[in-house]
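Reopening closed ticket. The problem is back. First fold of the pair:
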Amino acid sequence: MIIEQKYSNEGMILKKTKITNWSPIIDAIVTNLHNGQETLTTERFLVDSGASLSILGPSLGNLFSDTVPFDSFYVAYGSGTKQLDVFKVKLTMQGGYQIEILAALDTTLRFKNHLLGVTKGFEHFDHLVLNNKSKLTKLVKKY
């Protein structure tokens, strides 16, 4: 099973050289496993190998507003650390493939996309392929 998606240009262009920022992205429907509520459209996740845990941004705050957190986690950002609530989440991706992840909710995150991290995130897959020449993200499950 392979989930494959084109990189997207997230709009960052260097001022002098006009170099664009192509980012490995996965789209998914997000479901709150506590109450069964899900997003009506797909949400975009940056495949972030530097993120130990997935981070959900402010657009999903309402999805978890009446949910007791599963746990909490200190996230280290460049400007310091922050304690965030962690929830159990299901992602439904291309082809209907579903994975359950743990994700922290940061309602002040100033980033266009959510972050798909390693722990209980893309570690569900055997291979993560980022093909920069073809601008393709591939998540591969061998079995």
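Second fold of the pair, where the issue appears:
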Amino acid sequence: METDRVLTQVRTPFYGTIKGSIQIHRNKYGSDDVLTLCCIKVTLLDADNQWVAEECTDDNGDFTFLGFALKTYTVVFPESITYQKQNFLPDGGFQHHFKIELSPEKTIVDGITMHYGLLQTGSVQGYTLGSDAHVNA
């Protein structure tokens, strides 16, 4: 009977996975001109903004943080990416870090995609997370 009780217990996961990608939109050949570069570093910080790990994107621009304790993290993307002497910035403003929470209910956070694009001449727009504030410079 003891084995029956052990088989019916629900096991709580202890570790989780964070997956995402980086895409660069050149718009040189139309709006679907997207590059995926390998070897772009993505950093994982804990809730106290202390370094936890780093991963680099693969040939498809994808990265994975596999087997991390269930808690809150911040995924930090590069502030900018230089490709062929052009500087690409995060689309939609200057935010390049995102809070992620791994929990027993959500052990996999997938689809964190960071889009980079060329700065439009004459206009800089910045957005603050959690705010409707909009700044034009």
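Update: turned out to be a display glitch only; the data is intact. The CA atoms of residues 125 and 136 lie 5 Å apart. The first strand starts at residue 15 and ends at 25. Please close again.
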